[in-house]
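I would like you to help me understand the sequence and structure tokens below and explain how sequence relates to structure.
___
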Amino acid sequence: MNLDWLLPLLFFPAFLTLWIGVTFLIGATGGWRTLGKTYALRGGPFTGRRWHMQSGAMGGFARYNNILTIGADLRGLYLAVFGPFRAGHPPLHIPWEQIRTRERRGWIFHSVDFTFAAAPGVQLSLSRKLAEEVMAVGGRALPTSV
């Protein structure tokens, strides 16, 4: 009995399962899942200013290159991941009072690290330029560099 026709039918479910598993793993190891326990977006859609297709890093392992939507309003910081990568990454809205920032200067690039009161081991790194824009919309200023 020849079952070669079955292989193409199994490819899509296997690929989809692997894709979802990997995105859940990235969310868990990078810290997004931890943030989601406390800061998951509630109460309707986010209505503040958004920057689409942005990049950032979490936890040293999770790199989000051009798939982040970063947002800000006077209440807090909004974070979401582009649709196909959203498994394990609920949209977040983190109050400004729960956020600490620290500038990090490299030889070429400068970034800003965001840490969160309810998840002290989680760190989000964004470019300094983006962090300045986000903080300004939120009515905040970046601290001086360390």
